[in-house]
Amino acid sequence: xxxxxxxxxxxxxxxxxxxxxxxxxxxxxxxxxxxxxxxxxxxxxxxxxxxxxxxxxxxxxxxxxxxxxxxxxxxxxxxxxxxxxxxxxxxxxxxxxxxxxxxxxxxxxxxxxxxxxxxxxxxxxxxxxxxxxxxxxx
Length: 138
Prior knowledge:
Strand content: under 5%
Order of helices and strands: HHHHHHHHH
Shape: elongated
Distance between the termini: 41 Å
Helix content: 55-70%
């Protein structure tokens, strides 16, 4: 890997404001969200906003999946989306991102328990596994 320049990261983030470049930039950011957020913290707010759009949601969630600090900041929005999600794939994606936060995601426990209670197959199994670390201190 090569060293990145903070100025280049800021330029990259600026392209998120150009609609025709958003999906390309989000794809580029996905594996580097944590690093880019250090020099351009505003990127996290932009990614969180993109989780609310149908066309960019999968890419934005992938970016959050690779950044613990971004996922922590996005937690209230992720929980809200999880509460209303019907698609198993998206439930699994949201549960995975939230679950990686462990005890820091305790606010997600009620919605995780709801998914388990509704017995949504694989989503319920995965949620149950990820719930355990959240409850460690209890």
